[in-house]
From TrEMBL:
EC main group: transferase
Cited Pfam families: Methyltransf_28
Molecular-function annotations in GO: methyltransferase activity
UniProt protein name: SAM-dependent methyltransferase
InterPro entries given in the database record: NDUFAF7, NDUFAF7_sf, SAM-dependent_MTases_sf
GO biological process, one term: methylation
Segments traversing the membrane: none
Originating species: Bradyrhizobium barranii
This enzyme's EC code(s): 2.1.1.-
Record carries keyword Chloroplast: no
């Protein structure tokens, strides 16, 4: 049996301090300074645990580059722009975006690239992928990125931020926790006492959920940081992730290892632990601090609006039949709504300073799911 130092540490913490909230367990699984999943490995690609959209096709990053150019023009084409990526993987998306932006020399000259990444293994990969890019810097947090007009890209970033989970009982909502069963295995439980007046904070749809329902939520700190930054310093943020358009009850806490779903309590630190993103909650938090919200829309709709079909056709025209087939398959994967496609599962949300209206691919007039 493989050694599981993080599991042993979590067991010891529960024995000494009592049941552990889900958010703390998730935080340890992903960010433990020695054994955390995102601190110690490259999880991407076929040899890793999952594949992200930029790894599926160069078209994804290229179109985000063109989206960046469109927003830069709406901002008045400032002579200085910070292009910030949160959780940039292997640097593939940024490399593809920058390649597309090279056709616009005034913008390319204005760029200062900032990569927010805590994983030293991935930082090395990004550095190699982006060798030759001038004006590039790495940071542990967006708090460390200097001020200035910014466009922020966050693809599959919010899904790994720790969630809190609540379970509805007859007498109210109890925090969901991790405890140890009689055989020494980890299991889910619930705090003995309900959280006072928790239902007052809930959307009506969730308040009406049956006994036994699970509701999960993330603190608003990270989205409020992005929204406040673009509100005060000019610019926009684009958030792409899998999740739901409306706040609702449901347990989406999951783990993925080797491209397969696995038990999130089985091997802490050795699988990617995530939960769906509540886009209605993100939009509400951004609006609360005075930023303008655009969307959300599905990834399929967004990519089609910003020209993925045209880009795919142009690439296929110059390609061999084998490569043309690969491009067609990638296009379907990114835009299709079926189980194998990312088109409807993934959503896209734009946040900007209030004067920016009608951002490319998104419209603040068509709020799917609404945020009221």
């Amino acid at each position: 049996m493989t050694e599981q130092p993080l599991l042993n540490e979590i067991r010891a913490l529960i024995k000494s301090s009592g049941p552990m909230p889900v958010w703390r367990y998730m935080e340890l699984c992903l960010m433990h300074p020695r054994y955390g999943y995102y601190v110690s490995r490259d999880p991407l690609g076929r040899e890793g645990d999952f594949t992200t959209a930029p790894e599926v096709s160069q078209m994804f990053g290229e179109l985000l580059g063109l989206w960046t150019a469109s927003v830069w023009k709406q901002m008045g084409s400032p002579q200085f722009l910070r292009l910030i990526e949160l959780g940039p993987g292997r640097g593939t998306m940024m490399a593809d975006a920058l390649r597309a932006l090279r056709v616009l020399p005034p913008l390319y000259q204005a760029l200062h690239v900032h990569m927010v990444e805590v994983n030293p293994v991935l930082r090395e990969r990004q550095s190699a992928t982006l060798a030759g890019v001038r004006n590039i810097a790495w940071h542990d947090s967006i708090d460390d990125v200097p001020e200035g007009p910014s466009i922020i890209l966050a693809n599959e970033y919010f899904d790994v931020l720790p969630i809190r989970q609540m379970v509805k009982r007859e007498n109210g909502w109890h925090e969901r926790v991790i405890e140890i069963d009689p055989n020494g295995r980890l299991q889910f439980g619930a705090a003995a006492d309900p959280t006072p007046r928790f239902d007052v904070l809930l959307p009506p749809l969730v308040r009406a959920a049956p006994v036994g329902a699970v509701f999960e939520w993330r603190p608003d700190g990270e989205i409020m940081k992005l929204a406040t930054r673009v509100r005060d310093q000019d610019g926009a943020a684009l958030i792409i992730d899998y999740g739901h358009l409306r706040s609702d009850a449901g347990d989406t806490f999951q783990a993925i290892a080797r491209h397969t779903f696995t038990d999130p309590l089985k091997a802490p630190g050795q699988a990617d632990v995530t939960a769906h993103v509540d886009f209605q909650a993100l939009a509400r938090a951004a609006e609360d601090v005075g930023a303008r919200v655009h969307g959300p829309v599905t990834q399929g709709d967004f990519l089609k609006r910003v020209g993925i079909d045209t880009r795919a056709a142009a690439l296929m025209q110059k390609a061999t039949p084998e490569v043309a087939t690969d491009i067609s398959v990638a296009l379907k994967r990114l835009t299709d709504t079926g189980r194998s496609g990312m088109g409807s599962m993934f959503k896209v949300l734009g946040i900007s300073e209030p004067r920016l209206t009608g951002i490319a691919g998104l419209s603040d007039l068509e709020r799917a799911g609404g945020t009221s």
